[in-house]
Amino acid sequence: MKTYKSQGEDETYAIGKSFAAGLSRGDIIALDGDLGCGKTAFVKGVAEFFGCSDEVSSPTFTLVNQYDGDITLYHFDVYRLENPSIEECDWMDDYLFGDGICLIEWADNISAVLPDSTVRVRISKTAEDENTRIITIENSES
């Protein structure tokens, strides 16, 4: 497990970009944290690392955005899904078991359908100030 302290959106972005260096095709990243904690800023950093030219935004209403770069990224926002069954999420299989990288915001909502190899990224607000975040990254091996 690795823990980082971010003092704002730019640092969260930079941590995401640095984290991306260790990713490869087929990786699944579960992003969790409160509303406005920086999940999308983290994804923007990952997208920058892989040379994705599309504008990164949270796919709250579309469920998934695709960003093409050196490796295709699939950016999910599953906020609106609450504990669906595996059968209800079978449409995700092509993404989860494909050759791109999946980044899933609000992943706790679908934890039952994610494989054990999923990397967990938790971003937490702190009482320190409104911009400070603690980012914890836990691999399945941790």
Topology:
Blueprint: E1 2-6, H1 9-20, E2 28-32, H2 39-49, E3 64-67, E4 73-77, H3 93-96, E5 101-105, E6 119-125, E7 133-138
Parallel strand pairs: 2-5, 2-6, 4-5
Antiparallel strand pairs: 1-7, 3-4, 6-7
Helix pairs in contact: 1-2
Structural class: alpha/beta
Q: Sum up the overall morphology in one term.
A: globular
Q: Which bin fits the share of residues in helices?
A: 10-25%
Compute the number of helices. Answer: 3
- Are there runs of 5+ residues with pLDDT below 50, and where? none
Strand order of the largest sheet: 1-7-6-2-5-4-3
Top CATH class: Alpha Beta
Give the number of DSSP strands: 7
Mean pLDDT: 89
Strand percentage, roughly? Answer: 25-35%
Distance between the termini: 6 Å
Number of domains: 1
- Could you please say which CATH topology applies here? Rossmann fold
- Write down the Rg: 14 Å
Structural description of this entry:
With 142 residues, the protein is of the alpha/beta class. It has a single domain (2-138), classed as Rossmann fold (3-Layer(aba) Sandwich), CATH 3.40.50. 19% of the residues lie in helices and 26% in strands. It has 3 helices and 7 strands; from the N terminus they run βαβαββαβββ. It has helices at 9-20, 39-49, 93-96; strands spanning 2-6, 28-32, 64-67, 73-77, 101-105, 119-125, 133-138. Strands 1-7-6-2-5-4-3 form a 7-stranded mixed beta sheet, covered by helices on one side. Strand 4, helix 3 (93-96) and strand 5 (101-105) form a beta-alpha-beta unit. Helix 1 (9-20) crosses helix 2.
